[in-house]
Amino acid sequence: MTGTSGQAGPGFRHVLYPYDGQHAFVAGALAYIEEALRGGAVVLLAVDEPKEELLRAELPGSGAAGRVTFLDTATVGRNPGRMIPAWQAWIAERSADGSPVHAIGESRWSGRTEGETAELRYHEWLLNMAFARSPMWWLLCPYDTTTFGEEELALARRCHPLVLRDGLPEEGPDYGEEPFAFDALPAPQDGGNELTFGFGDLPAVREAVTSCAARHGMKGARLRELLIVCTEVASNSLRYGGGGGTLRMWGEEAAGGTVMICEFHDSGYLSDPLVGRIRPRPDQLGGRGMWLVQQLCDLVQIRSDPGTGTTVRLHMAVD
Questions:
Q1: Of 55, 84, 89, 273, which residue is least crowded by CB atoms under 10 Å?
Q2: In a domain, 7, yes or no
Q3: pLDDT, mean over the chain
């Protein structure tokens, strides 16, 4: 892994690490960690539980003591929209003494839904923007070539400016800074219930959401959280989306149970791709609404275009 920690200079180094199976992952990860430690870096590891056990068994106890931290990505939840502020918090906490930071972040664990996988690709593309002016830190993103097909790897290469080859980070020839190419949002499973709303209709929005959610078994604190995020997004449509919008609601069956989905569409345009993904400052006057939406929802999908308007699709598990 020679060269991964030796390059000086400010900024974010976002590196794709294609590897061939479990043994290759452990060998490559250990080499990356050991060189980072030799360079005086702190190391943050966000991997799934089986890989964590493998790395813990192989890490040298004395050299890694106090310098290697395993991060519990379960605390972030399944929503990729929470991951950028989580990295910001982790880095700030572990590098308070000015130490360089090297990390391994594996977010593509099994069990992800198709929608979550698509939003993870967007998250990886947004990382380059979110940390463009940050102090130097490395993020190595492992992709198992025995699990992911060539099409998936090609999409990953477009989100990573650097690719690890033979232990060295090289400029990724497929990385592009053009606007992200979103997947189209799939149609509702059951057609959904629809409501057109305008000024003065927020009570009607909440009533419609409550009625639809109750039919799918949502109640209590979960329903209250859904009403909070739906009120916030509907209010944004009234404020910034032309004075109104359209709400569609439906339930979908997933591996973990029923998911309630509320989709808002209006004629406005969201120009900030990082909306809701950066923790608001204590002295900040606005910008807390979409942050709260990302924190409460299991998945948030936003599609915005100056010509066709903005669609915000909120996913929340019933249980």
A1: 89
A2: no
A3: 88
Question: Cα 237 to the chain's mean position, in Å?
Answer: 24
Q: What's the CA gap between 144 and 139, in Å, rounded?
A: 16
Instruction: Report the Cα–Cα distance between both ends of the chain, in Å, rounded.
Output: 44
Hey, what are 80's tokens? 């990729």
Banded pLDDT at 4 (limits 50, 70, 90): very low
Residues 24 and 162 in one domain: yes
H or E element, residue 263: strand 257-266
How is 120-142 classified by DSSP, letter by letter?
Answer: HHHHHHHHHHHTTTSPPEEEEEE
For strand 42-46 and strand 68-70, is the pairing parallel, antiparallel, or unpaired?
Answer: parallel
Crossing angle (nearest 10°) for helices 83-94 and 114-130:
50
Does residue 226 lie in a domain region?
yes
Nearest Cα neighbor of 102 from 134, 65, 140 is 140
The range of the structural domain enclosing residue 32 comes to 12-171
CATH of the domain at 228: 3.30.565.10
CA-derived radius of gyration, the chain: 21
The answer, yes or no, to whether residue 45 has pLDDT greater than 60, is yes
Residue holding tokens 């003065």?
200
167: left (phi over 0), alpha (psi -120 to 50) or beta: left
Chain centroid, CA 62 distance in Å: 34
